[in-house]
Amino acid sequence: MNNIIVEDYICLGITFANVTGFSFLSGLSGAMEPICGQAHGAKNVKLLHKTLLMVTLLLFLVSIPIDKILIRFSQQEHNAIVAKNYLF
């Protein structure tokens, strides 16, 4: 594969991750903060553990299907797969 084309795929993956992925994941993480703060203040270790575990799992599951999201936004399938492979 041509190096310029590979660089384009890498750029696509990084741009998508920065604009949508990291912003979205940051928002989900921010929603967890008040719950964890309240659980920690109340010394409710079970709720703190449960919240951290659930949000970590949710963040992981949301970040997996990047290629399908790119394809839905009219990117070519090959480009989306290469971008996903670069990010993961």
From TrEMBL:
Keyword Ribonucleoprotein attributed: no
Residues that span the membrane, as ranges: 9-27, 47-66
A GO CC annotation given for this chain: membrane
Alphabetized UniProt keyword annotations: Membrane, Transmembrane, Transmembrane helix
GO MF, any single term: xenobiotic transmembrane transporter activity
Coiled-coil residue spans: none
Record-stated family: Belongs to the multi antimicrobial extrusion (MATE) (TC 2.A.66.1) family.
PANTHER family xref list: MULTIDRUG RESISTANCE PROTEIN (PTHR11206)
Protein name: MATE efflux family protein DTX1
